[in-house]
Amino acid sequence: QVQLVESGGGSVQPGGSLRLSCAASGDTESRNYLAWFRQASGKVRERVACLYTGGGLPYYADSVKGRFTISQDNVKNTLYLQMNSLKPEDTAMYYCAANWNRGCSVDPPQFPYWGQGTQVTVSS
Q: How far apart are alpha carbons 20 and 79 in whole angstroms?
């Protein structure tokens, strides 16, 4: 089992920045695809960014390309999402998720491990 705990959410004005963290514990060897999803009120869950722990180019949704950066710290077993130039449409609950060997492009049910989420609100 893998436990994921997000932190770093909050309220920020448009144009501001936040960095989300996702600390992993438990069987951290059983995850090699790490992702950030978000879900706004009344909308479907959206894949924001994803990376393969073995390297390669991360995936980004078109809506966040050039503004968000996903990264990992293997020593700390922590996944990050640096969010810059935030927009009101970025307002959502953000979740980190993990799977083993299923890839980044699979649907959310194919990610067996999820955090509890952290709220991001972008408003003036």
A: 8
pLDDT category, 28, cuts 50, 70, 90?
A: low
Write the DSSP symbol of residue 57: P
Beta-strand relationship, 118-122 and 59-60 = unpaired
Q: What is the DSSP string of 66-121?
A: TTEEEEEETTTTEEEEEE-S--GGG-EEEEEEEESSS-SSS-GGG--EE---EEEE
Task: Answer whether residue 59 shows pLDDT above 90.
Answer: yes
Confidence (pLDDT) at 60: 98
In one letter, which amino acid is 102?
Answer: R
- Cα-based distances in Å from 46 to 32, 58, 60, 61: 20, 16, 11, 8
